Amino acid sequence: MLRWSKPLIAAALLAAALPASAQDATLPPDTRFSAIRVDVGPLLARGLGPYAENVRGELQAALAKTFADRVGGPGPTLVVRVTGVSFNPYAGSETRFGGGNATNSDYLEGEALVVDRAGTVLLRHPQLSATNASAGGAWYDPASENRRVTYIAGHYAAWLKRGLGLE
């Protein structure tokens, strides 16, 4: 049974109040942003502290690199809110039973909000990125998990640029 909490009700009302164009649209091809921010509040609310901050740092760096030609000037702010991260255990079993194994995927879920200076959401773009858990290299390497975060952050940023119609 779905329980309607105050934040859930507020989010539903905000989504319903947005014009249809703000919920599913692309941006004009010459759009520039005044800034790019990453919000990991939903992850912090789940107690993911340092891990959430690592995701924020990697995604901020990936967005800065991907959108480098789109930042500067008085335009709106691009806010990317990360709502979920799922990194499945990976032990090198890419082809179980002769085919791909969906349990070997990492996921990064969120939404991009294009916000003007008055705080009005001009566009909302939800996005889910899925990458292969092997992207971090050998599973037994202690640095593998951080490489997986870096890889999925870059994947998310690249597809976001395309999804916003800026590529």
Q: What are the SSEs and their pairings?
A:
Elements: H1 6-17, H2 20-23, E1 35-39, H3 41-45, H4 49-66, E2 77-87, E3 105-115, E4 121-132, H5 144-163
Parallel strand pairs: 1-2
Antiparallel strand pairs: 2-3, 3-4
Question: Describe it for me?
Answer:
With 167 residues, the protein is α+β, with helices and mostly antiparallel strands. Strands 1-2-3-4 form a 4-stranded mixed β-sheet. The N terminus is likely disordered. It is elongated. Helix 4 crosses helix 5. The longest helix has 20 residues. A hairpin with a 5-residue loop joins strand 3 and strand 4. It is built from 5 helices and 4 strands; from the N terminus they run ααβααβββα.
Task: State the separation between the terminal residues, measured CA to CA.
Answer: 41 Å
Overall pLDDT, averaged? 84
**C-alpha geometry:** elongated
Number of strands: 4
Order of neighbouring strands in the sheet with most strands: 1-2-3-4
Largest sheet: 4 strands, mixed
What string gives the helices and strands in order?
A: HHEHHEEEH
Alpha plus pi helix count = 5
Our estimate of the beta-strand percent is 15-25%
**pLDDT under 50 segments (min length 5)?**
1-21
Cα-based radius of gyration, to the nearest Å: 17 Å
How much helix, percentage-wise, in residues? 25-40%
Structure class: alpha+beta
